[in-house]
Specification:
Helix content: 25-40%
Shape: globular
Distance between the termini: 29 Å
Number of domains: 1
Number of strands: 17
CATH architecture: Alpha-Beta Barrel
């Protein structure tokens, strides 16, 4: 039993949590740039400034939805004394050569990163791109090519240009389809021959749970979220077709946050609740792979009075612009039950009862390697197209020892068991799996809480929750372990770690 010879081992990041370079090189403000550091309650605050009066303030924002209210005439702005994690993050903007060299040392076959929309189009609605931004990503992709690393690029990853939010309402406005097409046309033409693998939206389903983060929405009601999601789906289908025209060798995939649910009991009501949860999990993949809205979603909209504004050609675009692969994030599983005797918890949008058979990390995320095998089988059985695990990992408050070493055996154990689950899915179940890019291969800011202490990386970055630190990079034990795994193409998963250079 072994992984395919062309299996793409690597790691995953996102510009809004990793890149930094706030406003450098002509970059514009994005939605992530106006969010202050979060907390365990998963509340953020959006800042605003009234240009007429000079007044500034902060508006609490429900991270999981709700409406954002910004005073008339105000625009989001930074406020002195507040900490904004995305502004520096862990500073890939100034450390990209060093970081890519470290990824190459581990033996990466691919590196997942995202393009910061506002770096290429500062306001999102310009007709021509910012050349400094275009050059930056040319430099990044050239550095990857130097080491034979294939970029896997997320086109939009939780960083809608703030101008598109304030002046258009985010993806509620159909004009964003055209702005996004213009953005993508620049990407596909500029980086033709340098980037083969693309994903149109990160965790596109998150717009239903976090509409500001997922779609730059100020209004999070069902009608507006449904219309915004439709616009994103149409936009995705159009750029899939565009990419095929510009460079037929490109592979365009979709990316979804995927969680496996278990019914808490054999009560038929629990089973029906699980069925409804599975519909929510599969809606976006159904549209982007099959090319049409499933009946269960249309009936849901009918019940709730949601009416989509569909223009001529939209449904045809959905049909024609289906994706070549499904990429997904997998962290944990949840339990669906109406039985109130179960303990309840949450972790990264996965709300449900706690599973008594599983351990959790300090943030309440269940650790379930078998769930990854179930996820792979469920998706492959349903769609029969290649899959890619593009996020998977565990956050821990790593400790730096006196000698500078970082012993993260818990991360090694987590990754080992999940890689074994992928191995079983490939070799026992026949799943077509393209690659594995664990989340936060290098430490970055948590999207869920704005923290640094919830670390995912195999490379430690010296930075804390309030922005202190040298940004020095250090190798954790997991760095050396994953290097061995890649070198053996997944055959050597022994937990012994050798730091011989």
């Amino acid at each position: 039993m072994s992984f395919p010879k062309n299996f793409l081992w690597g790691g995953a990041t996102a510009a809004n949590q990793y890149e930094g370079g706030y406003l450098e090189g002509g970059k514009g403000l994005s939605t992530s740039d106006v969010l202050t550091a979060g907390s365990h309650t998963q509340m953020r605050q959006i800042t605003w400034k009234n240009e007429a009066t000079g007044e500034t303030g902060k508006t609490p924002m429900a991270f999981m939805g709700g409406d954002i209210k910004i005073p008339e005439g105000a625009i989001p702005a930074v406020i002195d004394g507040e900490y904004y994690p995305s502004h520096i993050a862990t500073d890939f903007y100034h450390h990209y050569k060093e970081d890519i060299a470290l990824f190459a040392e581990q033996g990466y076959k691919c590196f997942r990163l995202s393009i910061n929309w506002g770096r290429l189009y500062p306001n999102g609605d310009e007709s021509e791109p910012n050349e400094n931004g275009v050059k930056f990503y040319h430099d990044v992709f050239d550095e990857c090519a130097k080491y034979g690393i294939e970029p896997l690029v997320t086109i939009s990853h939780y960083e809608t240009p703030i101008n598109l939010t304030i002046n258009y309402g985010g993806w509620i406005d159909r004009k964003l389809i055209g702005f996004y097409e213009n953005f993508c046309r620049t990407l596909f033409t500029e980086y033709k021959g340098k980037v083969k693998y693309w994903m149109t939206f990160n965790e596109i389903n998150v717009i239903e749970m976090g509409p500001f983060m997922g779609g730059g929405l100020l209004k999070g009601d069902k009608q507006n979220v449904a219309q915004a999601a439709f616009h994103q789906l149409v936009a995705s289908s159009r750029v899939v077709q565009m990419a095929k025209e510009i460079d037929p060798s490109m592979m365009i995939g979709m990316m979804v946050g995927y969680g496996v649910g278990y019914a808490g009991t054999c009560n038929p009501k629990d089973q029906l609740a699980l069925l409804e949860g599975n519909h929510m999990s599969h809606f976006f993949t159904d549209v982007q792979v099959r090319g049409y809205y499933p009946n269960y979603k249309l009936k849901e909209y009918e019940r709730e009075g949601v009416t989509l504004d569909i223009k001529d050609g939209d449904l045809e675009d959905l049909r024609k612009g289906t994706v070549s692969f499904i990429a997904f994030s997998y962290y944990s599983t949840n339990v669906v039950t109406l039985d109130e005797s179960f303990d309840h918890g949450d972790g990264n949008f996965s709300f449900g009862a706690k599973n008594p058979y599983l351990k959790t990390n300090a943030w309440g995320w269940s650790i379930d390697p078998a769930g990854l095998r179930i996820a792979l089988n469920t998706l492959y059985d349903r769609y029969q197209i290649p899959l890619w695990v593009v996020e998977n990992g565990i956050g821990y408050a790593d400790v730096v020892e006196a000698d500078g070493s970082i012993h993260d055996d818990y991360r090694i154990d987590y990754m080992k068991k999940h890689i074994e689950a992928m191995d079983d899915a490939i070799n026992l179940d026949g799943v077509d799996l393209m690659g594995y890019t664990p989340w936060g291969c290098i430490d970055l800011v948590s999207a869920g809480t704005g923290e640094m202490k919830k670390r995912y990386g195999m490379i430690y970055v010296d930075r804390d929750d309030v922005g202190n630190g040298s940004l020095k990079r250090s190798k954790k034990d997991s760095f050396y372990w994953y290097k061995k795994v890649i070198a053996s193409n997944g055959e050597d998963l022994s937990e012994e770690v050798s730091k011989d250079e």
